[in-house]
Amino acid sequence: MKILYSLCAITLLTGCQSTPPPSSGLVPVRLQTDWFPQPEHGGFYTALTKGFYQAEGLDVTLLPLGQYSSSLKVVSSGGAEFGLASSDQILEAVANGLPVTAVGAFMQHDPQAIMVHANSPVKSFPDLEGRSVAAQPGSTWFKFIVSKYHLKDVRETPATHSIANFLADPNYIQQIFVTSEPYFVKNANVPFRTILISEAGYDPYRVFFVHREFASKNPEVTAKFVRASLKGWQEYLRDPAPAHALILKLNPAQNAAQMQFTLDTVKEGAFISSGPEIGKMTPARWAATNDQLNSLGVVRQPIDPTTAYTTKFLP
């Protein structure tokens, strides 16, 4: 069953004050996430459970995303005002004519990686020559790896969100998020190693974005959403308990130990900045990713990367 909730919908779960009726003046806003409820979205859940959105005059609804949907398509078609994606996806979307703009980076680095067994001869990306990698079909990072290391015989096979094949096959190589799949492999007592995609020099942000027309017509609402979201991420790193409690109720596939593993990994890997750096995006990072996309030929029409994001709503 699809999960849809706002502050008023979580009152019985959290004990917080219910959202006032529309006459109170709260502005309804929807955030389309990029997966089911999970700790990787903890800052947004914190902003919701601790009332940061409500304090800004917003009634925010978080929309989970199924396996075969796209946050970019949902927002572009008017199904939500805000969404979550990576900066390379934003650049590709803008180059393809979608009306979206990134407004903040909730992760400074992408936790995507490949996972191999501990005794695998694959120690670095050039070692993928002659092997198969289970990855999302058409992944841009995979094209980058093939191009940078001049791989002639590396095969991309469809990835799943299961580790069953990895556990069964000592030669299996799988695309993962270091914040997720390793938890289950550790619990299965199978030795493994991970290699972050960013180690190859391909390192997009994880961002939240807005429909361009909405931001143009509602700059104050956009600024309030960004401000409350960043406050939520700062608070999540300090006190994750309220967000984790809600995530666990909304997504029973999670568990407390798994969520703690994700949070610990996020902190240890410095994927999320804190303090004044939180949300930060730099022209140099956006330009570098844009240049990589152009060199790979994955965009139909080269664009000015500054048209894909704005920092005017950041602290």
Task: Please summarize the sheet with the most strands.
Answer: 6 strands, mixed
Going by helix content, strand content and strand pairing, the class is alpha/beta
Give the fraction of residues assigned to helices.
25-40%
The helix count comes to 13
- Total beta strands: 11
- Shape, per Cα inertia axes: globular
CATH topology of the largest domain: D-Maltodextrin-Binding Protein, domain 2
How many angstroms separate the termini?
38 Å
What are the salient characteristics of this protein?
globular, disordered N terminus, single chain, alpha/beta, D-Maltodextrin-Binding Protein, domain 2, 3-stranded antiparallel sheet, 37% helix, 6-stranded mixed sheet
Notes on the structure:
This protein has 315 residues and is of the alpha/beta class. The chain has 2 domains: 5-109 and 204-307, D-Maltodextrin-Binding Protein, domain 2, CATH 3.40.190.10; 112-200, Periplasmic binding protein-like II (D-Maltodextrin-Binding Protein, domain 2). Helices cover 37% and strands 18% of the residues. The protein is built from 13 helices and 11 strands. It has helices at 11-14, 42-49, 52-55, 71-76, 87-95, 140-148, 164-168, 181-187, 212-217, 219-238, 241-250, 256-268, 283-296, and strands spanning 5-6, 27-32, 58-63, 82-86, 100-107, 112-117, 132-135, 155-158, 174-177, 192-196, 206-211. The strands form 3 sheets. Strands 1-3-2-4-11-5 form a 6-stranded mixed sheet. The protein has a 3-stranded antiparallel sheet with strand order 9-6-10, with helices on one face. Helix 2 (42-49) crosses helix 10 (219-238), helix 2 (42-49) crosses helix 11 and helix 5 (87-95) crosses helix 13. The longest helix has 20 residues, at 219-238. The radius of gyration is 20 Å and the shape is globular. 44% of the residues are buried. The model is unreliable at 1-23 (pLDDT under 50).
